[in-house]
Design goal:
- The chain is of the alpha+beta class.
- It has a single domain, classed as SMI1/KNR4-like.
- It is built from 7 helices and 6 strands, in the order H-H-H-E-E-H-E-E-E-E-H-H-H.
- A 6-stranded antiparallel β-sheet has the order 1-2-3-4-5-6.
Length: 171
């Protein structure tokens, strides 16, 4: 949880989404048959955020914007839009397919996905049609994008946001 604490310490903008309650997480987890990693839950619960820089976060309490909602209905919508092409180009399936990936966040065409096998984030890039295991939990990945932009190029820039040392939009 060191990454989560570091992110929260650097978090310098007003929350842009609703704060989820335990019932929101329980409903989502029951619907998808998988728990959400603790670090991701705590990040959303403590910030109420729907973005870190240009990284858009899904939130189970979000009701206004289906693209930012972490609900079964929102994920089924993503499945309808993307599953066939993602499977054809990358060989992976999206929820609600058995063992389908669950999108927790995205930057443009790059999705940060949760698999059923571990809490490590799978990165799916629909721009280049590449997929890889990050071997990092969500907050560790976000902090690594923030601290080492050279390793991640455009992803790191999206988290860093205009070369300013902060998360989120400029104040």
């Amino acid at each position: 949880m060191n990454a989560l604490n570091s992110i929260l310490k650097r978090f310098k903008f007003k929350p842009s989404g609703p704060l989820p309650i335990v019932a929101d997480w329980e409903k989502f987890e029951m619907e998808v048959g998988r728990s959400v990693p603790t670090d991701f839950k705590q990040l959303i619960e403590q910030t109420g955020s729907t973005s870190i820089g240009y990284c858009w976060l899904r939130n189970p309490a979000e009701r206004e914007n289906i693209g930012l909602a972490l609900t079964k209905a929102a994920l089924i919508r993503e499945h309808i839009l993307w599953n066939d092409i993602v499977f054809k180009m990358m060989g992976v399936r999206l929820f609600p397919e058995p063992d389908g990936l669950i999108q927790l966040a995205h930057i443009d065409s790059i999705s940060f996905m949760l698999s059923y096998q571990s809490d490590n984030i799978v990165i799916c890039d629909r721009g280049s049609w590449e997929i890889f295991e990050s071997n990092l939990i969500f907050t560790d990945l976000i902090l690594s994008l923030f601290t080492d932009r050279t390793q991640y190029d455009d992803l790191g820039f999206s988290i860093w946001h205009s070369s300013k040392e902060l998360f989120g939009w400029p104040e």
